[in-house]
Amino acid sequence: MQLADTFRMQFDRLLWEVVSISDGVVSPDVIQSGEVFTQYTINAELATSYYTGVNIPYDLTRAEMNLMGDRNYPLSQELEQQVYEINERAIELTESLIQFKSTILSNVLSCKMYSVNYPLLIDHIKREAMLYLKMVKFLQSREIINIENEVLEQELFWNRIMAEHSKFIRGLLDPTEEILINTANNFGNEFDQLAEEAKAAMDNSIPFSQVTADSLEATKAIRDFKAQGTQGILECKVKSIIIPLLGDHTLREANHFLRLLKSFSR
Ligand SMILES: [Fe+2]
C-alpha cells in the first residue's frame, strides 16, 4: 500500500514537471480532446479524495485546464533536452510500476492476496502501462513508424480497453440498475467484436478504413454513456460502487481513443 502511494506521488511530481513546460507548446487537439481533463475531473477528484482519504492534487488538474496550446511553436533545443530527460525518468518509473502491478496480479491470481479490484482491472492497467512505456521508448529512439500497422495495433488495443471498461462498469453497478447494466453489457459485446475486426484487418481480411469508421461510431456512443454515468455518479443518481474518478478516467480514455480515431480517419 505504501509502495502504491509512493508511485502515485512520483507520477504526480513527473506530471507537474510535464505541465510546467507544456504551456504554449502542447498540441491544441490534445488539450481540447477531453483526455487530459473533462468538465467532471475536478469534482470527481474532490469526491474521490473525500471518500478515500487519498490526497489527489486537483491543483494539478487546474494547471492543466489553464494550459494554452500552440500547433506551430518552434521547438527549442533546451525544451527538447528537458523532454528527453523527463521521458528517461518516465521510462524508469513506468518499468518499476509494471513490475509492481505484475507482482500484485500474480499474488491475487494465486490467492495470496485479496483485492476489491477485479484481476482483469489489474491486468488492464498493467497493459496500459506497457503501451505507455512502449510509446515513450519509441519517442526516445526517434525512429519512424509504420503508420498502418501502428494504427491497427492502437485500434486493437483501445477497442479491447473499451470492452473491458464496459464490463467493469457492468460489474460495479448496483444490481438494481438493470437498464445501465444491459447497456454496459451491449457495449462490452460491441467492443469485443470491434477488437476482432481490428485483428481481421491486420490479416487484411477486411479493409482498414472500415475498422476505423466502426470504432469511431461506437466510441462516440460509449463516450456519451460514460459522460452520463460519471455525471450520474457525481450527482448521486446512479447506484454503484464505482469510484467517481474511475468513471471520469474511463471517459478520458474514450476521449483519447476518439482523438486517435479522428486522426486516423483524416
Ligand atoms: Fe484505464
Describe this structure in words.
Helix 1 (2-20) runs antiparallel to helix 5. 75% of the residues lie in helices and 0% in strands. The chain has a domain at 146-266: Protein of unknown function DUF2935 (Ferritin). It is built from ten helices and no strands. The longest helix is centred in the middle third of the chain and has 33 residues, at 77-109. The protein starts with a helix and ends with a helix. The model has no long low-confidence stretch (mean pLDDT 95). The radius of gyration is 19 Å and the shape is globular. By secondary structure, the chain is mainly alpha-helical. Residues 128, 249, 253 line the site of fe (ii) ion (FE2). The site of fe (ii) ion has 3 residues, from helix 10.
Mean pLDDT: 95
- CATH-assigned fold name of the domain at 146-266: Ferritin
Element string (H = helix, E = strand): HHHHHHHHHH
Outline the low-pLDDT stretches. Answer: none
User: CATH top level of the domain at 146-266?
Assistant: Mainly Alpha
Query: What do we call the CATH homologous superfamily of the domain at 146-266?
Result: Protein of unknown function DUF2935
Query: Could you say which structural class the secondary elements and strand pairing correspond to?
Result: mainly alpha
Helix fraction bin = over 70%
> What is the second-level CATH architecture of the domain at 146-266?
Up-down Bundle
Please state the overall shape, judged from the principal axes of the Cα atoms: globular
Distance between the termini: 44 Å
The distinct ligands, each listed once, are: fe (ii) ion
The biggest beta sheet reads:
none
Care to count the β-strands? 0
Strand content: under 5%
Number of helices: 10
